[in-house]
Amino acid sequence: MSFALAPGATIGILGGGQLGRMLALAAARLGLKAHIYSNDPDSPAFDVCGARTLASFEDEKSLADFAVNVDVVTYEFENVPARTAAILADLSIVRPSPEVLATCQDRLVEKEFLTANGIATAAYMRVDDAGSLARAVAQLGRPSILKTRRFGYDGKGQVLVREGADLAVTFRSLGGAPAILEAIVPFAKEISVVAARGQDGQFAAYNVCENAHENHILKFTRAPALLAPDVAAEAVRLARAIADALDYIGVLAVEMFVVDPSGGAGEGAAELRVNEIAPRVHNSGHWTLDGALTSQFEQHVRAVAGWPLGATGRHGASVEMWNLIGEEVFAWEQILREPGANLHLYGKAEARPGRKMGHVTRVLS
Amino acid sequence: MSFALAPGATIGILGGGQLGRMLALAAARLGLKAHIYSNDPDSPAFDVCGARTLASFEDEKSLADFAVNVDVVTYEFENVPARTAAILADLSIVRPSPEVLATCQDRLVEKEFLTANGIATAAYMRVDDAGSLARAVAQLGRPSILKTRRFGYDGKGQVLVREGADLAVTFRSLGGAPAILEAIVPFAKEISVVAARGQDGQFAAYNVCENAHENHILKFTRAPALLAPDVAAEAVRLARAIADALDYIGVLAVEMFVVDPSGGAGEGAAELRVNEIAPRVHNSGHWTLDGALTSQFEQHVRAVAGWPLGATGRHGASVEMWNLIGEEVFAWEQILREPGANLHLYGKAEARPGRKMGHVTRVLS
Question: Which CATH number does A189-364 carry?
Answer without folding.
Answer: 3.30.470.20
